[in-house]
Amino acid sequence: MVLRSKPADGTHWTVRSAASVTGLSKSTVGRMLALFGVQQHRSKSFKLSTDPLFVDKVKDIVGLDINPPDHAVVLCVDEKTQAQTWERTQPVLPLGLGHLEGVTHDYVTPLFAAHKLPKVRAWLAAGPRFHVHYTPTFASWLNQIERWFALLTERQTRRASCISAFVQTYNARAKPFVWTATSEAILEKVERLCKAVCRTGH
């Protein structure tokens, strides 16, 4: 029932609402959901790429990560949007018993797309040693810098603004990220996701 239907008054079943409809106790419903790993109160976001060259770009990017060209350096770069890089306008409310730490949200940068700027294009054209490989549209997760951005957000910018201190500390003990997923494994996973989306009628 929890997986195949929705209550009339909400987007998902709660333990209480499922118990009232099934006649089971709340504790029984809770144990059954936990037994099968069902977390009906949680969701995660996803976005499928609409890039017509998605497959080719996945193979290209993953190929660079797993088997980079001889005598070449592969750099993964991107803009870091939605970063709190200025000092906050109000002090952080400290963590305490019964309440979470509180921070203001003051500064969000727009999506910049620096690689489309004429000056950047001209610079790249003047430097034939540089070859730019683009990730597919809506697939920035293929860019290894996104993993580092996640660390930056988790450990620093979600609560503070001083990026340089984080970078210095991180670089002192940094280890390279190692890409392990093959393009075939990625494309199989995306295919399964597409089939799951198709079954929803969208």
UniProtKB/TrEMBL annotation:
Domain Tc1-like transposase DDE intervals: 114-158
InterPro entries: Tc1-like_DDE_dom
Designated name of the protein: Tc1-like transposase DDE domain-containing protein
Organism: Gluconobacter cerinus
Lineage: Bacteria, Pseudomonadati, Pseudomonadota, Alphaproteobacteria, Acetobacterales
